[in-house]
């Protein structure tokens, strides 16, 4: 199995098969416009611009499941991303990424790349882990997405290679991306 068995709705409304990305390396990321990690859009766009001509695509999936940090419509999300961060990589419709209503793609991604914990030696990892322990301890259970901007690296055959948690910066993925290109 690979990610190519799934389809998703683009932010503009049309359904697409992820098979259209066959042969490309991918970063699949759940996003939000009002999150402390939202500035990662800027570095995701930089990574996209640097590697898109070598076969990288970044697929953004906005989600309102974490602190209701993506409250707007799909149109609002698209405008926000373009105006504030110049996002030109593909965005998809607002999507549930954890729980009973999670898109099957995200169930597959988290099954293939389980949660291994946050790097609590880094301030952002320590902060997010402490926040979840105190406010949403159930979020730390299992392998599901823990927060906005969890990133999954996918090889050119559609297989999940690595998971990067919210607290890991997009630029820190470059060495792993380069191995796939």
TrEMBL record:
Domain of life where this protein originates: Bacteria
Domain Thioredoxin: 1-181
Biological processes annotated in GO: cellular response to oxidative stress
Keyword annotations: Oxidoreductase, Peroxidase
A GO term for molecular function: peroxidase activity
Residues at the active site: 35
Family according to the record: Belongs to the glutathione peroxidase family.
UniProt-listed PANTHER family: GLUTATHIONE PEROXIDASE
Protein name as it appears in the record: Glutathione peroxidase
Taxonomic lineage: Bacteria, Bacillati, Bacillota, Bacilli, Bacillales
Gene giving rise to this polypeptide: bsaA
């Amino acid at each position: 199995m690979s990610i190519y068995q799934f389809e998703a709705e683009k932010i503009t409304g049309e359904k697409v098969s992820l098979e259209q990305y066959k042969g490309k390396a991918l970063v699949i990321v759940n996003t939000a416009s009002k999150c402390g990690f939202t500035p990662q859009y800027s570095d995701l766009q930089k990574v996209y611009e640097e590697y898109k001509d070598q076969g990288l695509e970044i697929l953004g999936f906005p989600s309102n499941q974490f602190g209701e940090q993506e409250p707007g419509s799909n149109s609002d999300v698209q405008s926000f991303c373009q105006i504030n961060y110049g996002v030109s990589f593909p965005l998809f419709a607002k999507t549930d990424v954890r729980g009973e209503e999670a898109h099957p793609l995200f169930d597959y991604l988290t099954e293939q790349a389980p949660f291994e914990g946050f790097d609590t030696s880094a301030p952002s990892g320590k902060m997010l882990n402490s926040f979840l322990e105190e406010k949403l301890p159930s979020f730390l259970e299992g392998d599901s997405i823990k927060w906005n901007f969890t990133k999954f690296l996918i090889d050119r055959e559609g297989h999940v290679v690595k998971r990067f948690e919210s607290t890991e910066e997009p630029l820190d993925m470059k060495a792993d991306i380069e191995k796939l290109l």
